[in-house]
Design a protein that fits this description.
Blueprint (H helix, E strand, L loop, with lengths): L12 H10 L11 H13 L3 E8 L2 E8 L8 E7 L19 E2 L2 E3 L7 H16 L8 E6 L10 H7 L7 E6 L4 E4 L5 E9 L1 E10 L3 E2 L8 H13 L10 H14 L6 H5 L6 H6 L4 E9 L5 E2 L2 E10 L6 H10 L3 E9 L2 E2 L5 H13 L3 E8 L5 H4 L5 E4 L21 E3 H17 L1
Parallel strand pairs: 3-6, 3-7, 7-18, 9-17
Antiparallel strand pairs: 1-2, 2-6, 4-5, 5-19, 8-9, 9-16, 10-14, 10-15, 11-13, 12-14
Helix pairs in contact: 1-3, 3-12, 10-12
Length: about 425
């Protein structure tokens, strides 16, 4: 990495807190958010926040608190994160996925990036202000939700439906996935802030056929019917890139920063290192088969076979792309929607983005903020329905050779300890001034 700025004075409480959170197994499915919710609720209570507790099912807990700012005339700012994580297969990991180990300058474990590190940064920044005898400039609503990794039905969906008044004066929200760095030149470093995120359509495909002996000719084999449908889905043509307001602003920003006004989008994407795969996915509607089930014995043709697909849609394509895929699957296979969430777009001219840029630049003089389209879906799906402008921002100064996009939901998920400290420094500055 080139041109690293000096780190701020944030203490290592953020590392200890991230380790504590990682060591609580909140796998979804398979775990409970309650112990983690109790930990963050205790931290908020120590900060003087009045907390509301939500538990729609035993152990599936969300916590919402509010911290008063110095200027009550300003709209409140919502800071949100999720307490659950995707499961981890220990055999695939170099280190214990729930050990929270500090090793080689990294905090290791499931949730280090997604998103217990973010929670630790948020709480540590608020604690920093309190220790300084200060407070955020505006009221801050802090929400830690359950169930995000399964769509948020037991978390953000439940909380916003039951108590929308908790967020009534929040004009903007900061959540995942954004704020990570990539050095562009010797003097400029981009920090990508999510100003939009793709929609999601999860669907189950089901083929019904004739059960029979595996040694016989079977023209009504459900597995074969399903396999042909999956092949059509997997082989579908991505087509030409589809521009959106966010991706257009990203590439225009890159041309300006790099002083290359004639550069093509393709050439610019090639300058983004590991991050290019996320940018390229943000230019298309995408789909992947993720699960296949069928049969119970080698020599028995099953009467039914099922599969699950994960489609991600650009703004304006929330209904057209699922219909396109349904037509592609064909009439021989039924299609059942499991979850359907709309794409989210937020303002590109928001004052919050300017404030983020100022806070970043004060910590890293090379910093420049660029918007991007997140390919992941977040609890912004539910919060945006309340009229809140949602942005993905976890300030992290990362080594440029770290392929961090591969660590989300992957084995050996980890975050540099220095990135946690940097995040506390930047978020503290932002909350104190915005």
């Amino acid at each position: 990495m080139t041109g690293l700025p000096a780190q701020g004075s944030g203490d290592d409480d953020v590392i200890a807190l991230a380790q504590q959170l990682i060591r609580i197994d909140t796998s979804n499915p398979g775990g409970s958010e309650k112990p983690a919710a109790e930990l963050v609720a205790d931290a908020l209570d120590r900060l003087g926040a009045q907390c509301r507790w939500f538990e729609p099912e035993p152990g599936r807990c969300s916590v919402v608190g509010r911290i008063s700012g110095t200027d009550p005339s300003l709209p409140a700012l919502l800071l949100h994160a999720h307490l659950d994580v995707v499961p981890a297969v220990a055999a695939d990991w170099t280190r214990d996925p729930f050990g929270g180990e500090l090793h080689d300058g990294f905090v290791w474990g499931r949730g280090a990036l997604d998103m217990k590190g973010h929670i630790a940064i948020t709480l540590s920044a608020l604690r920093n202000l309190s220790r300084q005898g200060s407070a955020p400039r505006r009221d801050v609503v802090v929400a830690f939700f359950a169930d995000e990794e399964a769509g948020g039905t037991l978390g953000a969906a439940h909380v916003t439906a039951q108590c929308p008044e908790l967020f009534a004066d929040c004009s903007e929200a900061i959540g995942e996935v954004g704020g990570f760095s990539h050095t562009l030149t010797g003097g400029r470093r981009a920090y990508f802030v999510s100003t939009a995120e793709k929609g999601v359509w999860w669907a189950r495909l089901r083929a019904i056929g004739a059960a029979g002996h595996g040694s016989m000719i079977n023209p009504h084999n459900a597995v074969s019917t399903l396999a042909r449908a999956l092949a059509r889905v997997a082989d579908h043509d991505l087509g030409a890139a589809i521009p959106t307001a966010t991706t257009t602003a990203l590439f225009d920003g890159l041309r300006d920063v790099l002083a290359e006004p004639e550069a093509s989008d393709e050439a610019l994407a090639n300058r983004l290192g590991h991050f290019d795969r996320m940018i390229r996915a943000g230019l298309h509607n995408t789909v992947n088969p993720t699960q296949v089930h069928g049969g119970y014995k080698t020599n028995v043709v099953p009467a039914e076979a099922t599969a699950v697909i994960d489609a991600r849609t650009l703004p304006g394509h929330d209904h057209a792309f699922p219909q396109q895929l349904t037509d592609l699957v064909g009439e021989a296979v039924t299609v059942e929607t499991i979850y359907h969430g709309a794409a989210v777009q937020s303002r590109l001219d928001a004052p919050l983005l300017d404030a983020i840029g100022t806070a970043l630049h004060s910590a890293d003089p090379m910093a420049t903020v660029l918007p991007y389209m997140s390919t992941a879906f977040t609890d912004a799906k539910w919060l945006s329905r309340l009229g809140i402008q949602c942005y993905g921002f976890t300030p992290m100064l990362l080594p440029d050779d770290l392929d961090f996009t591969a660590l989300f939901h992957g084995a050996d998920e980890r975050i540099p300890a220095s990135a946690l400290r940097f995040g506390v420094d930047v978020l503290t500055r932002l909350l104190a001034t915005y």
